[in-house]
Structure of Large ribosomal subunit protein uL6:
Amino acid sequence: MSRVGKTPIKLPAGVNVAIANNTVEVSGKLGKLSMKYLDVVTVTNQDGVVQVQPANDSKTARINWGTVQRRVANMVSDVTNGVDVNLELIGVGYRANVQGNKVNLQLGFSHDIVYDLPAGITAKSDKPTSLTISGFDRQLVGQVAAEIRAYRRPEPYKGKGIIRNGEFVLRKEGKKK
């Protein structure tokens, strides 16, 4: 029995869940998300509580039971509260500037990098060395953060690069004389 899968998902006010043809569609104040799931699990919505159950006793059903429950719970949370990812730019001259739907990054290259934000994603830069990416789709926010981080991954000797807030960069010792 999956402890995660058994947990019911209580819907906050203003969140609607529609289930049809192995697809869960969650809509809230921030937007609308949908997800397809396998037919080895059943998802039901009764009286503002979403319940996920395995359809049979197969190994595939037991594997997907908790996964589907967590993904639906995350979708409910995302359309209610949204998702934020904080990035920090560490390095001399590393700066980020948000101008409308574009993020201008200065990362020590001979040119600036201009990153176009996809629809549904916003960014803000409180100070030049920090960048906050926000949206209501957890997967898309994480993907945008990963693409921006890929321009300058943190290097282990000086620690320069773009890191997520709270990430630990393993530092190496340099050459010894």
About this structure: The two ends are 59 Å apart (CA to CA).
